[in-house]
Amino acid sequence: MDEKYIAASLIAAADENIDAELVYGAMETPPDRRMGDLAFPCFRLARTLRKAPPAIAAGIMESINKNPLPSSIAKVENVGGYINFFLDRSAVSKAVIDEICERSEGYGRSDEGEGKTVVVEFSSPNIAKPFHIGHLVSTALGHSIARIYDFLGYDTVRVNHLGDWGTQFGKLITAYKLWGDEETVRKDPINELLKIYVRFHEEAEKDPSLEDDARANFKALEEGDEKITRLWKMFVEASLTEFDRMYKLLGVNFDSFAGESFYTDKMPEIVEMLREKQLLEESEGAQVVRFDDESMPPCIILKSDGTTIYATRDIAAAVYRKRTYDFYKNVYVVGTPQTLHFKQVFGTLKKMGFEWADDCVHVGFGYVRFPDKAMSTRKGDVVLLEDVLTEAVAKTREIIENSATSKDLENVDAVSETVGVGAVLYTFLKNSRERDIIFTWKDILDFEGESGPYVQYAYARGRSVLARAEEQGIDYASGDPALLTGDEEYALVRMLSKYKDTVREAAAKFEPSVVTRYVTDLAQQFNKFYNTCSVMKAEDEIRRARLKLTGCAAEVIKSALYLIGVNVVEKM
Ligand code: ARG
User: Fold this and answer.
1) Does the C-beta of 313 come closer than 6 Å to ligand 1?
2) Of the residues 53, 68, 163, 519, which has the fewest C-beta atoms closer than 10 A?
3) Which atom of ligand 1 is nearest to 134's Cα?
4) Three-state secondary structure of 248-291
5) Is the pLDDT of residue 382 over 60?
6) Is the CB of 124 under 6 A from ligand 1?
7) pLDDT reported for residue 300
8) Rounded to 5 degrees, what angle do the CA atoms 90, 73, 38 make?
9) In this structure, what is the dihedral angle of CA atoms 116, 270, 308, 225, given to the nearest 10 degrees?
10) pLDDT tens digit sequence for 503-554
11) Which atom of ligand 1 is nearest to the CA of 317?
């Protein structure tokens, strides 16, 4: 049951020129409960109906009063150009709680995506380079977006578009041949490869012939030279082992690791198509696609030496994905500095005649800022992911060990890991993604502020009350939700009823922060309910109803946290 829908229909019935969908979308939740549970601002219809809001409101009231109200609506009032609806709390509570209990883990899920495939490309770190914080943000966002689409019934394909190709691999091979050694690389691949790569640049300044050697090595790699390819494979494998450790810690998985190298043999066809459609023009020796009409710089397809670049590989990748997955949406979770790149890639696809270019979406995100002095790192300004995660877990452990309530936890290690990692993920998904992320330990691990631990704690609190009830043999499944009519109980019920719309909004905007905001509000409202209404000490009927509500709140908190990649703990 959707009361908003019922209320909108009542309004729309007043005049055939009223669009029920517009009314539904314009329906507000009044800030003050005395103004009802839902309110419709009549000025939204002023233009269509060519009447002043008070006159519109009067007309709507007249129409509504003609018939008895539907059972879920207790009262309707017209106040200052607003139509205020007061819902029947008992009916609403019963409908919402019954639905959650019935669907349990399935609550909020839908099958609206059935038969549609969404490709979500995310993380995409570069081989032989550190996995930096930007890649972690992409990982957190993409992981969450994929889970949200799964939840709505879409088939999702998680793709890690590894940066495993390009002229830098020629340099790396030259450097490795001169100064590298397999055992050291396997032991600490990223640091070791980075070290010889940096050394290459230093030495190449003195000896430019190294650059020639690097070019020759990359050419040999492109041509499939066996020995060189074997080296390259070793770099890729060693780096992936490192990345995997982090993915495991985060609970992230992929369906495909088709990185840039995967498209080497798929590019000639693309270049041929571009040529055939006469889209390629020469510019300073390179072959480019121009966007003069869109006043956008050209997209380079072939460099002057005939080699392909990053953008060429992306065009080939998009075509490959369309052919392989026939996607409904093809999503790229990559920082906003690459906005122009994706405009050029999608623009080229469009010029090639691929209408589905419009289904390709660049989901951008901002920078992470570290005001904490102590966060500056081992290596200049790149903040390494592993440092952040390890420190988050260590700091969480410290807090837990010093807290009075969690002293007797048996699994401190596991709890610290879940809470510490969750705290970092929560922070990345807290605000709209295009805003910069301000990362300070104080905020991230603030158990009382808007943080991951705060929400996880609300869950654990709910679960421990339920565990106590179970110990005492209280059968709260039999609680009657129609009794949940008190202000704080009812506010919590209403919030639970908004879960479905929340997930849909997050999906449509590719914005996990919509879910993060929601689960934070939900945890706050749960705490408010818990602090205001006694649960275990209430009289039996009320106690069972409140316990049932507690169970539903815990269920939805867990479900929403799952959608942002955060796990729960039963005790903390
Ligand atoms: N590897 C790139 C980087 O680290 C990100 C790849 C983004 N995805 C893409 N299809 N271009 O900057």
Assistant:
1) no
2) 68
3) 4
4) HHHCCCCCECCCHHHHHHHHHHHHHHHHHCCCEEEECCEEEEEE
5) no
6) yes
7) 96
8) 100
9) 90
10) 999 999 999 999 999 999 999 999 999 999 999 999 999 999 999 999 999 9
11) 10
C-alpha 163 – ligand 1 centre gap (Å): 6
Q: Among 271, 314, 347, 269, which residue's Cα sits nearest to residue 121? A: 314
Sketch out the chain's domains with CATH numbers.
Answer: 3-87 (3.30.1360.70), 385-563 (1.10.730.10)
CA of 314 to the centre of ligand 1 (A): 9
Pocket test residue of 334, 339, 343, 346 for ligand 1, highest count of atoms within 8 A of CB: 334
Q: Is the pTM of this model over 0.90?
A: yes
User: CA gyration radius for the chain?
Assistant: 29
Give the pLDDT of residue 377. 44
CB contact at 8 A, 164 and 452: no
Residue 395: is it exposed, middle or buried by C-beta count within 10 angstroms (0-12/13-18/19+)?
middle
pLDDT tens column, 189-217 = 888 898 999 999 999 999 999 999 999 99
pLDDT at 373 (0 to 100): 59
pLDDT of residue 379: 44
Write the Ramachandran bin of 326: left for phi over 0, alpha for psi from -120 to 50, otherwise beta: left
